[in-house]
Amino acid sequence: MKKNVVLHLAVLVVAVCAAAWLAKDLKKQQDDFCKSRAMLSKTPLAGFHKLLADIKWMQFIQYCGRTEKFDDQTVAEINVMLEELFRLDPDFGKGYETGAMMIYTQDPKNAIALLEKAAKNPMLKTNWRIPYLAGFVHMRQVKGQSQADLEHARLAKVYFEQALGANASQGYVLSSLIRAEAALMPGKPAKLAELMAWQKYYESRRMPMSGMPGMPSVPGGMPGRGVGLPPFSMDSMAFYGPDRDRVINRIVSLAQQCRAELPDNAEVTKVTGEVVGKLLADTHLCPHCYAIYGASDRFCKDCGKPVAVYGVCTKCGELLGGGKFCAHCGQGAAKK
Amino acid sequence: MHEIMAIASSVWRRYLRLGVVYFLVISALIIIAAMNLYGTLTMGEERALMVDMSMFMTTLAGFLAALTVAFDMPREIREGVASTLLVKPLGRTQYLAGKLIGTAAVAIMVAAVVSVGFFVILKLCHGTVPLEVVQSHALILASMIPVTAVALLFASFLGEAVAALLTLLVVWLGFSAGLVAKLPLFYGGVLPDLNLFNVRAEAAYGFAIGWGYVATALAWSVVYAIAIQALAAMIFECRDVK
């Protein structure tokens, strides 16, 4: 019997030490992939926080569904419900988005706080909608050009950049960033500010070109200094995103309007010239009115001034339809 | 070893003859499947709700199966069935080991049937069964081993009701790690840190878990069960069984 007790005791001690060592290792591994555990409620719910959060979510939806008017009291109750919900499930991205949008008109401060809290959650770093909505609510607070408005615009810009960094592919995210950037230029005409914002964004994302092997050179190229956004080459589609035509049309429209409204303004002339020269280098624009013209056009449709012809055969002058040779005379289709 | 497996297979056969086990499994699967109807009430989050409910029902089904030893063993001791079994060459340690293996196997089997049923339902309703969900269910199955060991420990020297209540309390505390979680020898070595098996939120959102973690957690559950089994054997050796 004594032998049995000693044996059991020995097994007990060894097993307890081994279990403690394994538990320590497991805890470390768990902390690595469960980064938001610290935000979880400490209420002893036997680990069923997520299930309870689902029930709270359904209660929240029911509450919002039967609410006729979103007044201060309703918003206060919603804030309490959301706080309880996110203590139980801090990784619930859709909850942050929906909750913030429910309250942002009545209580923008809390909506921003909610989205900022979500944006800081490492488990939600691939969710681009949260920083986008944070930027959106900040921009809605920009009413003029006071210090408070500029601060909102600055924070909006940070969040829009964070959204783009989280692989937001929607064109309106980039447009929102440009508007926020433009809002940070008080005193400038709105269209000029937006044009300068496009230029600034382009400069911040340009690839380091000069002197690097295998890279095309850019006159006066400067190293890219984007905020964590990947660089792109001069004629890459990455700058324009999926709405390439819409973006180009917008920039062209801005350049045209700036030239039309302020033709004698030196800054306008300088900025539009730089923008057309760098951002729209691949787009064929009339040098006088910046209208886009097509292949084989010899005069601009909008102002009638002569333009540099492109897309025609150097021998017979016929329109090149793509391919390596001219379909009319067989001449090699050299680019013009 | 032969005696241990004889006890274990006796436990296995006895529990699987109970109709309530099948009722439990079918009820769990119906509740899980019903969660798919909550699309409107959850604003499109019915899949996450289904995953969460499946983990709750799997844990509950396995836990109830594991808890049966807390009722079964004290009853056997009280009615004298145990004293008949505990004549040589069947020792007390072998008796406890057989009970542990048999009950843990039943608990794992019941939980596994609920899990597999959920995977089929998820596949039919949503097309895919993510790896993280499978891993989280594997962890729930692994957690049945220490839970059964704790139930066996209390059943070895307490009555049915007290043993069941204490098991419930320890399991509840095991999942609800607080300040004591910072003391790895105590929590993880002495008290079961069942929170190590809790990756429900991560599974619902598709965050990667890793099979290495699952394997280590399974190793911990076995080692911890051995520790509790040794303690239970020490206590049971000293107990007077008529």
What does this structure look like?
- The complex is a heterodimer of chains A (336) and B (242).
- Chain A is built from eleven helices and no strands.
- Chain A has a domain at 296-336.
- In chain A, α10 (244-261) packs antiparallel against α11 (266-278).
- In chain A, 54% of the residues lie in helices and 0% in strands.
- Chain B has 242 residues and is an all-alpha fold.
- Chain B has one domain (2-238).
- Helix content of chain B is 74%, strand content 0%.
- The interface between A and B is large, with 44 and 56 residues.
The sequence of SSEs of chain B as H and E is HHHHHHHHH
- The end-to-end distance of chain A, rounded to whole angstroms, is 101 Å
N to C succession of SSEs of chain A: HHHHHHHHHHH
Beta fraction of chain B: under 5%
How can the largest sheet of chain A be summarized?
none
Q: Report Rg of chain A.
A: 29 Å
Structural class, judged by helices and strands of chain B? Answer: mainly alpha
Oligomeric state, counting identical vs distinct chains: heterodimer
Greatest chain-chain contact: A-B, 44 and 56 residues
Care to count the β-strands of chain B? 0
User: How many helical stretches of chain A?
Assistant: 11
| Shape descriptor of chain B | globular
Derived structural class of chain A? mainly alpha
- Tally of contiguous helical segments of chain B: 9
**First and last CA, distance of chain B:** 25 Å
Give the overall pLDDT of chain A as a whole number. 81
Protein traits:
heterodimer; A: 336 residues; mainly alpha; 54% helix; 0% strand; elongated; B: 242 residues; 9 helices
Spell out the blueprint of helices and strands.
The complex is a heterodimer of chains A (about 325) and B (about 240).
Chain A: H1 2-33, H2 49-66, H3 72-88, H4 93-103, H5 108-119, H6 129-140, H7 147-165, H8 171-183, H9 190-205, H10 244-261, H11 266-278
Helix pairs in contact in A: 2-3, 3-4, 4-5, 5-6, 6-7, 7-8, 8-9, 9-10, 9-11, 10-11
Chain B: H1 2-16, H2 19-34, H3 46-79, H4 81-85, H5 92-126, H6 131-155, H7 160-175, H8 200-204, H9 211-238
Helix pairs in contact in B: 1-5, 2-3, 2-5, 3-5, 3-6, 3-7, 5-6, 5-9, 6-7, 6-9
